[in-house]
Amino acid sequence: MLAQLDFIFFVYGLSFLLLAAVLWQLPQRACEDIVCLPWGWLALFGLLHGANEWLDMLALSLGDTPLFRLLRLGLMVLSFLPLLEFGRRGWRQLGGWAPGAWWIYPLLLGLAGLGVLADGAAGLNAACRYVLGLSGALLSAAVLLRAARRKQAASTRLPLFLIGSALLIYALVAGLIVPQAAFAPASLINQEAFLALTGLPIQIIRALCAATTALGGWLLFNRDPQQANSWLRRSLLPGSLLLLLASGGG
Prior knowledge:
The structure is a single chain. The chain is mainly alpha-helical. It has one domain. Helices cover about 80% and strands about 0% of the residues. The chain contains 9 helices and no strands. Helix 1 runs parallel beside helix 7, helix 1 runs antiparallel to helix 9 and helix 5 runs antiparallel to helix 7.
């Protein structure tokens, strides 16, 4: 399974990029019975995080360097910010209280930065996943699941539930099961321990979550086949073909 890790990273990244491509179209369409959530922020997360996973694939295939590792870490941290912002704005849009951006982001980034003091880059990676990734994915999942409960049409409720449920699981497998670091809980609950216990790389579970979010986004956008059909032919179908070709080559 480890031998196929580069392909897993490919699917992982492609799924989030497809999610971004679909969600970026939603704000341009009439809301009607669809929830008018700040989809652009979730799309930006998909774009940045998908790109980060493809950089991980390149590092695995072509080799890694300290500078490239730092670049990927920075992109991962950056990708979690729009995920958190989607949750923050979406929760407020649904009538809940959300902290102001002017103080919550400096506070969270400061807390995440403490990981550097504990264990350098590995500590920063783990701390950012805890502080930004876990909280952002949980809040975004709560927004989508809450929105799903408000919708009566199954064509809207099911996609929202799919994306929300996938992000809820993703919060645990990407924000709680982190790379090993010198402080708890990362010293005990980490990717290496998961691999030793199950024989599976945690990236497989993350990739499945990413693929589920992409499916939910596609269903959400494809509620009106007449409006979506031509765009899907130009964008999603070539992406699916690329995935099939890569699968055959793997």
